[in-house]
Design goal:
- The longest helix has about 55 residues.
- The protein folds into five domains: about 120 residues, no CATH class; about 150 residues, no CATH class; about 60 residues; about 70 residues, no CATH class; about 80 residues, Helix Hairpins (Orthogonal Bundle), CATH 1.10.287.
- The protein has 19 helices and no strands.
- Keywords: Coiled coil.
């Protein structure tokens, strides 16, 4: 009777706590509804304009959410769906979709007033509050980033404008590369070229900075009026840089084309052979290198490079001795190719016969290494690569076949593993569902047997944990059955069981004391400064304590056996 009375009191207390939680949560929802305008951060002007454009065509994610939201039957599922959508809008990469967040939040808040379980309502309210706070923090961070970007771009444009105003000073500080090789043909006009190029170096840097700032402005999130202001300033800076740069490029390009034409007219329009091909080659390379260093327009650069390349080809034509060398190399290439072909044929036969793809791949690598060390022509190399590709395909097919076999074996192992897991799961489910109809001893025995089989199985740790989680309710069932059995026993049996448990506790305490004394004697006997008599004394004492420890252990085993027998008797009754 006392147990029933206590149970009723607990139920009444739990009901009072639940009602109190509902009242507090309802009050929080009403307060939040009154203050929700203060919690939502104000959108920027740019966001407002984007929102107006998006009104005509709603965001697909928001539309999908609305559809899913309307399809939910219960209020708690609607609330859960809305909060999950709020969380997804903040968790996505890039700029969060605040518009979707605010819309979901607007739909979410009234649902807290509906009839929802107190525990779920409290949990969802905590998530709702945390997400609202996180949205405010994200909005503040994005505003800070935008302000920082505006500040940095302002600094960069101001520095660019100052640099443009100091054009003459920057030209005086400009230098040319130390490794610049000046052709002999242009030595008389060296200072003119350097003066042009120094001015262009400064203008090139300024033009590059203007273009880079324009690109940075395009991809930086900020208010449109700030962007327009910056673009106007960059446009004004470009008006000071680009026309001047274009005119200087035109002048230096015309001058360089005239000098190259003069060089070609002087050395390559005569039919007589040249005295020094080496000097002409070096002069052509110097002119081509200078063309890369100077800021020329595309037409002038292409024209001069084409004409200089033609001159280079004329020099090559005059080197007739190279024809003999090429003929000799061709014979050598043929011989080397025949040698490698023989090796490839042997390798192909080996690959077709062997079952080891590793050995076959090793043979191929040896041939490839030999090919890299051997001189081969383009045609010979192409032919050998085709044959090598055919052998590689054979090796690849064999390797793929082996991989397919391994994959099938792995699939079979996984299937067997899954079947074993399903078997254990079915046994566990059946045992839990039929636990009420089992006797206590039978239920305990079956559970222990199933757990033992589970631990000996080859299932993964997570799978074993899943099965153990299914069996977890059996603990409460076994405990409840055991308590019922204990309540049903007679006073004599209960008194006898208590007496045996007290004796067991006393004997365990006594065994622990003997164990501590035995450890003390062992440490003392292990000392190296003991004489023979003391050592013998400690040995005798240790032997006695061991006998006492064994007797105490045997007594504990007997008491435990009697307790088990008495409990079995109680359970059977």
């Amino acid at each position: 009777m006392s147990l029933q009375k206590q149970s009723k009191e607990k139920n009444i207390l739990s009901q009072i706590q639940t009602d109190s939680l509902n009242e507090n949560l309802q009050q929080l929802v009403e307060e939040s509804s009154m203050e929700r305008e203060e919690e939502i951060p104000e959108p920027s002007e740019e966001f407002s304009r984007k929102t107006e454009k998006m009104d005509e065509s709603e965001d697909p994610q928001l539309a999908a959410f609305r559809k899913n939201f309307e399809e939910q039957v219960s209020q708690d599922l609607k609330l859960q769906s809305a909060i999950d959508f709020m969380e997804s809008t903040l968790a996505q990469g890039g700029t969060p979709h605040f518009r979707n967040f605010w819309e979901a939040r607007r739909l979410c808040l009234p649902l807290f007033k509906e009839n929802i379980s107190p525990a779920l309502r409290g949990q969802l309210w905590n998530r709702y509050s945390e997400l609202s706070k996180e949205a405010r923090q994200l909005k503040e961070i994005l505003d800070e980033q935008s302000a920082f970007a505006v500040e940095q771009i302002e600094i960069a444009i101001q520095a660019l404008e100052n640099d443009i105003q100091q054009f003459d000073e920057n030209v005086a500080k400009s230098t040319v590369p130390d490794n610049l090789i000046i052709p002999q043909t242009l030595q008389s006009k060296l200072q003119i070229y350097l003066n042009f190029q120094k001015q262009l170096n400064v203008l090139n840097v300024q033009a590059s900075r203007i273009n880079a700032l324009r690109k940075e402005l395009l991809k930086t999130e900020m208010r449109v009026r700030h962007k327009n202001k910056f673009f106007q300033r960059l446009s004004a800076a470009g008006d000071l840089v680009f026309p001047k740069r274009k005119e200087l490029i035109k002048q230096i390009s015309q001058l360089f084309v005239e000098d190259v034409n003069y060089f070609i007219q002087a050395h390559f329009n005569q039919e007589s052979s040249h005295d020094s091909l080496y000097a002409l080659r070096e002069e052509i390379k110097a002119l081509q290198g200078l063309a890369k260093q100077l800021t020329l327009n595309t037409n002038s650069f292409t024209q001069t490079r084409t004409r200089l390349s033609e001159c280079w080809d004329k020099i090559k034509i005059e080197e007739k001795e190279r024809k003999k060398e090429r003929a000799h190399q061709k014979v050598l290439f043929k011989q080397n190719a025949n040698l490698i072909k023989e090796q490839l044929q042997l390798c192909k036969a080996f690959v077709e016969q062997t079952s080891s793809t590793v050995e076959a791949q090793k043979k191929l690598e040896e041939i490839i290494t030999f090919m890299r060390r051997t001189e081969l022509g383009r045609d010979e190399l192409k032919e050998l690569k085709e044959e090598l590709s055919h052998i590689r395909k054979i090796v690849h097919d064999k390797a793929k076949h082996e991989e397919d076999l391994r994959y099938q074996q792995e699939q079979e192992r996984n299937r067997q593993k899954k079947e074993k897991f399903n078997t254990f799961k079915e046994l566990a489910d059946n045992l839990v569902s039929q636990a009420e109809s089992y006797e206590l001893m039978k239920l305990t025995s079956d559970r222990d047997q199933l757990l033992a089989q589970l631990q000996e199985s080859s299932l993964t740790k997570s799978e074993k944990i899943d099965i153990e989680r299914i069996l977890r309710p059996l603990r409460d069932i076994i405990t409840e059955k055991n308590e019922k059995a204990m309540l049903a026993i007679s006073d004599d049996d209960r008194y006898a069981l208590k007496q045996l448990q007290d004796v067991l506790r006393q004997r365990k305490e006594r065994r622990q004391e003997i164990k501590k004394q035995l450890e003390i004697l062992r440490k003392a006997s292990g000392s190296s400064n003991l004489d023979f008599e003391k050592a013998m004394l400690f040995t005798s004492q240790i032997h006695e304590e061991k006998e006492r420890f064994e007797r105490a252990t045997q007594g504990i085993v007997e008491i435990e056996k009697k307790i088990v027998e008495l409990q079995s008797k109680i359970k059977r009754s």
